[in-house]
Design brief:
54% strand, disordered N terminus, 1 helix, 2% helix, mainly beta
Amino acid sequence: MSDQTPESGYRLRGDAPERLVLNGATLFGSWRGIPGQANLIDARPYPFPLPRAIRRLRLKEWQAIQAGDSEWFLMAVLYDAKFTSMASLDVWNRAEKRAYGFRRLFPGSRFSLPESLSRGETSVGGSGDRLTIATDAAAGSFTLEAHSKSRKNPLDLALRFDFAPGKCFPSSACMPLGLNRAIYSTKVLLPCSGTIATGGPAHHFDPASASGILDDHKGYYPYRLRYDWVTGFGTDASGRRIGFNLTDNQVRDQATYNENRLWIDGRVDALPPVKITRPNGPGAPWIIQDTEGMVDLVFHPEAGHQIKVRLGLAEIDYEGPFGRFEGELRAASGELVNASPLYGMGEEKRVRM
């Protein structure tokens, strides 16, 4: 059991701790900044002792990046579920309505994700495709590189994200799934620069109008994992960088612990719990609302992508469309933010693993 007293409310409270687990006990909370070490592997997540190797098998981990501007949107992820792992890149040319990218599934744990964003690099590939995410918070940047030698859809991607103080405002959360069993997540909206080429002239991302969101995630999810999620970003009429993250997952007491955030240029606000409904299925509009009048959005899918895996005791059922938003978000100051300039994606994920 955690030796920390729970905080009341979902607000961000102070700076992230140096370590998330101390003497086997997990520190729950929501903070500004990033933890020194997301060392969930050191926790005692179950009421009976388990060797470190067994705990590692139950710890699902991923690093994901969404990035783009008014012409392009992309989602890159390195996902380590231990029994299987994945490197995936989905790229959507919004003007031409054309998709690029690749997905590589590997048996077992093909790579290891770092415990700290201070510095680390993970790279994996196969069959002419490669995806690399390198973080260096101490140097104020991180990078995403991807290459595909596909004859039909060749792709070269090299992006840099500005992690310097004053350029981005990260927030992190460690949230309970059980008495000492947790999900950790750091999310941050950042300026994006770099290029993408798909067989023709390269497209250049201008950091004044291009953005990215980093998601660093670890969790002792149950055998049946479930979550709903949407994220979006863009610039408003006055040129401010706007972004949001909204999740409904298996966390206990989401009124106290959640990872829902709104970024408006120089600040990040916490948002209340939400519910995501799809009255007519994942290809039709999604409704995202809270009960406090802070979130009232409709997500309109434009480009769908799915992952369906059936491996006996393991199963992945995933819908992750890209699309546009409409509606409003309310900041902590009371300001209403128009979501129409924002573009992003949603996920409906159901996993047995």
